[in-house]
Each structure stands twice: as structure tokens, then as C-alpha cells.
Specification:
CATH class of the largest domain in chain A: Alpha Beta
CATH architecture of the largest domain in chain A: 3-Layer(aba) Sandwich
CATH topology of the largest domain in chain A: Aspartate Aminotransferase, domain 2
Number of helices of chain A: 18
Low-confidence stretches of chain B: none
Helix content of chain B: 40-55%
Number of domains of chain B: 1
CATH class of chain B: Alpha Beta
Strand content of chain B: 15-25%
Shape of chain A: globular
CATH architecture of chain B: Alpha-Beta Complex
CATH topology of chain B: Sufe protein. Chain: A
Helix content of chain A: 40-55%
Oligomer: heterodimer
Radius of gyration of chain A: 23 Å
Largest interface: A-B, 21 and 23 residues
Structural class of chain A: alpha/beta
Number of helices of chain B: 6
Number of strands of chain A: 15
Number of strands of chain B: 3
CATH superfamily of the largest domain in chain A: Type I PLP-dependent aspartate aminotransferase-like (Major domain)
Low-confidence stretches of chain A: 353-358
Shape of chain B: globular
Distance between the termini of chain B: 39 Å
Structural class of chain B: alpha+beta
Strand order of the largest sheet of chain B: 1-2-3
């Protein structure tokens, strides 16, 4: 299925790899690579600086990219989008500009135990500097945060709630609408790490009512080094700048300075226009995706995917990933030597215990609680060894702690293997994964501890 | 034999599951902790000297086949050696796994550890192979 998307990705075509690490970074389509190349051939100059036409052109493409991002996540105004290097920088901006200035010793920061280090370590710093308390919402054995956990942790005195929309380790889709509502009910602001969701599903920041939402471009077909921060306007107006320097100022005197309007106030120094152009092209690519069911397409489609004929853009992305995720879970579940974690995991006995190959009623719920990220272990074999054997078969997966040490420690694990999908993946990639896992088992059979 | 089999040799596999060098010393003079933050491999070496001679050496911790196996092989090699000999052998090993030229005579001084040379075919895993040795080098300083 969806084989025809692969043809847009030169790296995947030239290397014949099963690339299953898109949660780390995605490959880039020709459309994005060309857009960057065209920018340097035709429009490169320092934006917001020169009084000549070329600089104006550079400013124009930069501003257009901002507009496109705003529309993509349905922000009310384009100046609610601040360009950053990545989600990590966006989160640091929030921690420094908002956290350090708005928290006191009686206040509480609540995070989920699933947070990536980027939405965790900055808050440890803020907590230490301001004397505020740092608490965690923990997960149950299927990798989910229960309503009781939300209600018992987000209470009066909570000022900040940080939550990842989709776990980069377990693929859990968190109930962020509920969490945001709860945060608001106790007077806290919400910070959504959408690094693993904006690339994969339709996000509407107004409907979510998120106060801050961040993501990285490189996880959604765009180049490395460009990311975004969305925030409610009143927060952006009120907050102090994060980085100081060129372009973010209005008047500069010997002893003081005034600052530019939002969002320029948060964009010090010459900006990554190439990145913004690439991100803009990536959004165009995602928005324009449609399904091709022509006869000469060799790929066999499932009935579910055929239903997507009427879908467009992010709906297609989501449909494809859903099918791949469910297929992979089903195939992995057949391997008795593999332990799967998260909502679709081995622990979820409700779904898998009934019989080996028959889906029980609970299966359908998994579709809505797990995105295209699956963590697992080959019993008795260290994930790095698994990754090396898979690499010998040109299957690329991630192994390690996925920048989420507190989560793995909470789960009693040192590391896991992780596969993650994007539109260019196919069921054939999953089959290659399964074959390579058999090879791993064979190689280590004699040596299992 | 493909690259995989040249790295995952019986020697490294056997050492990785063996517990003969994996324990805590009852009496130790020093310990050193080594860690690969990106992958989570975590090792602690414990040492007991008899004058200038490494009387006893052990490791504890967790990690992949390569990091554990390499630690065990290193301990077999360095136990009973003088501090100076140990440093010399560690430096030869680190040169070898980092793909630098090492003379045949020097390689042979490494005993079983010389079979880890093939790790150069798997660049992503060099830091696994060198973890114990880097940690030992630090402890000798």
C-alpha cells in the first residue's frame, strides 16, 4: 500500500532500506529538496534587512511560511507562530520566558512521565530556580494516563501542565483535550509537545484550546534546524524575550533597548529562511496528498485504505499509518519471543490473550489510542544488538532509551527497540522487519541469557 | 561470513553471558563508572592492587552483548598485569577499534581482545566495544 509515496524520496529509492525511524527524523521528498535549492538559486538574502528587492523576496518567503504553518494547525493569527530551531528550543523558550517569570515556591509543575527529555529537563531547571514543585502523572500497564491520575495530579496550585500529545516511546495518544481542560479549571496553563502528532494527524490549536504547542520540522519532511512554537496571543505579548540581539529590537540605546512586535521579539539573529521554506514545502506536500487506486499500481489495498479515496492530506497520512501500525502490531504479536509495550502491547491481555491470531473486541480501541510508534524487545537480546542485526538487513530502527529515561525507569526497562512509521512506509517494510527479527532470534538462540 | 558473524563471534557471545568477571569485589582499592548516555550502557569497574600489579578486577552493570563481552575479555587480559602494561594494552586496543594502524605483534599482545577488531565494520557499535576500556583507562590515571 501507498508504495507510490516512496518514489518521492530519493534516499529511500537509492538505498533500498526499510526506514522505520521516522519518530527520530523523517526522510525528505524531492519537493522539499527542490524548494530549498530554488530558494538559494532565486531568493537568498538576509530577511528584514536590505532595502533591495532580493531581501524583500527572502522576507516574503519567510513570512509566507509562517502563514502556512498557522493555517496548518488552525492558529487564529499568523503572529502566533514563532520560528525556532526545533521543539526543544521552543520548550526552552517557554521555560525561560514564561516559567522562570511566573512561578513561585507555592506553585506546582505537572508533567507526564512520558515526556521526552526536552519537555522535562527545562522544567527541572525552572523548578530548582523558582522553588516550585515538580510532579508527574504516571501511566498504567498499557502505557496510558487514567482519568483518576489526571484528576489527582492536576489540582489547585498547579501552574503549568506539560504533556506530550503522542508518546515518542510507546505511541500512546494522550487525552490532551481533557488534560488541557483540567489544567484550565485549576488556573494552570498547558504546554503541548506535538512533535509526534503534528506530522501525523490534523491538529486544531483553537479546538484544543492549547496555551502553548510546539513541534519540529524535521519530523514532518522538512529540513533539520527549523521548528515552531504556537502560543496564545496574550502570552506572547506578555512574556519577556528569550534570546537577545539583532532583529528582535525596536530602539537600542547604550544602556537599554525596546523590543520588536510579536513574533519578531522572539526571533533574534538572522533566521533559518531555508528551513522555513523547506517546512512550507513539506506542509504543501502533506496537504496535497491524495490516494491513487489506479489498476497499474501494483500494491494491494485493504478495504480500509480504499475508503480513503475520499480523504485528502492529513486524513490520508493518518489512515495509512493506522493500517501500518495495526498490521505491525498484529505481526509482532505472532512472535512469541517478542514483548510489545504500550496500548497495543503484550501486557494488554484484554486484546491478545484470547487466542493467537484472532483480534478481540478491544482491538478496535487500539486504533484510536496508539499512533505509528511501537516499542518492543526481543526477549533476552539487548536492543542495540537487535538494531545491529536489523541494520545488516537494511532495516533501520531506533534502540535505546529514546530520550525518555524517567519513563523507561518507571517501566523497569533499560532500553527498547522502537519502530515508527510515515507515509513512505509499506507493509513490505513491516515484513522485512519481521524477517530480520527471526534472523536475530536465530543468531542469538544459543546465547540467550 | 558476513560482517555480523565477524562481530558476533563465539568468543564475544560467550563472554557476554558469562558471569565469571561480573561481580562485586569484596575488597577494592578503587572503582570507576562508565556510561554511554545515548544508548544507556552502564558499567562499573572495581579494582584491587597488589603493589603495582592488578590483583583483581571485576565489572558490574548492564548493556549490550558487545559492551558486556568486551568488558569481560578486557578483565581476563588485564588481571595480573602491571599498571604500565595495562595502560599500554588499553591504548593498543583503543587504537585498534578506532581503525588506526596497529602492528601484528601489538595485536597479538591483546589475546582474545584482538577479535574485536572487526567492530570497525560496525561503526555504530565502536563505543560499545570501547566503553569498558575507556573506563579502565580513566581509572589508571
Amino acid at each position: 500500500m501507498a508504495y507510490f509515496f516512496k518514489r518521492d524520496f530519493p534516499l529511500l529509492i537509492q538505498n533500498n532500506i526499510a526506514y522505520l525511524d521516522s519518530a527520530a527524523t523523517t526522510q525528505k521528498p524531492m519537493q522539499v529538496i527542490n524548494a530549498i535549492s530554488e530558494y538559494y538559486k532565486n531568493a537568498n538574502a538576509n530577511p528584514h534587512r536590505g532595502a533591495y528587492k532580493l531581501s524583500l523576496e527572502s522576507t516574503k518567503v519567510y513570512d509566507e511560511a509562517r502563514k502556512k504553518i498557522a493555517k496548518f494547525i488552525n492558529a487564529k493569527r499568523e503572529n502566533q507562530i514563532v520560528f525556532t530551531r526545533n521543539a526543544t528550543e521552543s520548550l526552552n523558550l517557554i521555560a525561560y520566558s514564561y516559567g522562570l517569570n511566573n512561578l513561585g515556591s507555592k506553585d506546582k509543575i505537572v508533567l507526564s512521565i512520558m515526556e521526552h527529555h526536552s519537555n522535562l529537563v527545562p522544567w527541572q531547571y525552572v523548578s530548582r530556580k523558582t522553588g516550585s514543585t515538580l510532579e508527574y502523572m504516571y501511566i498504567n500497564k498499557t502505557g496510558e494516563i487514567t482519568d483518576e491520575e489526571i484528576d489527582s495530579k492536576i489540582v489547585e496550585g498547579t501552574k503549568i501542565v506539560g504533556i506530550t500529545h503522542v508518546s515518542n516511546v510507546l505511541g500512546t495518544i494522550n487525552p490532551i483535550e481533557k488534560i488541557i481542560k483540567k489544567a484550565h479549571s485549576v488556573g494552570a496553563i498547558s504546554i503541548v509537545d506535538a512533535s509526534q502528532s503534528v506530522p501525523h494527524m490534523k491538529i486544531d490549536v483553537q479546538k484544543l484550546d492549547a496555551d502553548f504547542l510546539v513541534f519540529s520540522g524535521h519530523k514532518m519532511l522538512a529540513p533539520l534546524g527549523i521548528g515552531a512554537l504556537y502560543a496564545k496571543s496574550e502570552l506572547l505579548e506578555k512574556m519577556k524575550p528569550f534570546l537577545f540581539g539583532g532583529d528582535m529590537i525596536e530602539y537600542v540605546y547604550e544602556q537599554n533597548a525596546t523590543f520588536a512586535e510579536v513574533p519578531t521579539k522572539y526571533e533574534a539573529g538572522t533566521q533559518n529562511v531555508e528551513g522555513a521554506v523547506g517546512l512550507s514545502a513539506a506542509i504543501d506536500y502533506l496537504n496535497n496528498i491524495g490516494m491513487d487506486f489506479s489498476e497499474n499500481n501494483e500494491i494491494k489495498y485493504s478495504e480500509e485504505v480504499k475508503k480513503c479515496k475520499t480523504l485528502k492530506g492529513m486524513e490520508v497520512v493518518q489512515a495509512i499509518e493506522k493500517e501500518l501500525t495495526m498490521y505491525a502490531l498484529e505481526e509482532l504479536q505472532k512472535l512469541a519471543f517478542v514483548t510489545i509495550y504500550g496500548p497495543g502491547g503484550t501486557e494488554n491481555t484484554e486484546i491478545f490473550s484470547a487466542s493467537n491470531n484472532v483480534r478481540s473486541a478491544g482491538w478496535n480501541n487500539i486504533e484510536n489510542s496508539q499512533a505509528g510508534v511501537i516499542s518492543f524487545n526481543v526477549n533476552g537480546v539487548h536492543p542495540h544488538d537487535v538494531a545491529s542485526v536489523l541494520d545488516s538487513e537494511n532495516v533501520c530502527i531506533r534502540s535505546g532509551n529514546h530520550c525518555a529515561q524517567p519513563l523507561l525507569r518507571f517501566m523497569g526497562l533499560e532500553s527498547t527497540c522502537r519502530v515508527s512509521f510515515y507515509i513512505y512506509n509499506t507493509k513490505e517494510d513491516v515484513d522485512r522487519l519481521i524477517d530480520a527479527l527471526y534472523k536475530t532470534k536465530k543468531l542469538f538462540a544459543k546465547w540467550i541469557r | 561470513m558476513d560482517d555480523l558473524e565477524e562481530v558476533y563471534t563465539n568468543i564475544i557471545m560467550e563472554h557476554s553471558i558469562s558471569t565469571k568477571n561480573k561481580y562485586n569485589l569484596i575488597e577494592k582499592d578503587k572503582e570507576e563508572h562508565g556510561h554511554n548516555p545515548s544508548c544507556g550502557d552502564d558499567i562499573t569497574l572495581e579494582i584491587k592492587f597488589d603493589g603495582n600489579i592488578i590483583k583483581d578486577l571485576s565489572y558490574a552493570g548492564y548493556g549490550c552483548t558487545i559492551s558486556q563481552g568486551s568488558a569481560s575479555i578486557m578483565i581476563d587480559l588485564l588481571k595480573g598485569k602491571s599498571k604500565e602494561e595495562a595502560i599500554k594494552l588499553i591504548d593498543i586496543f583503543l587504537k585498534m577499534v578506532n581503525g588506526e594502524d596497529v602492528e601484528e605483534a601489538e595485536l597479538n599482545m591483546l589475546g582474545d581482545a584482538k577479535y574485536l577488531k572487526n567492530i570497525t565494520k560496525m561503526p555504530a557499535r565502536i563505543k560499545c566495544a570501547s566503553l569498558a576500556w575507556e573506563t579502565m583507562r580513566k581509572m589508571m590515571e
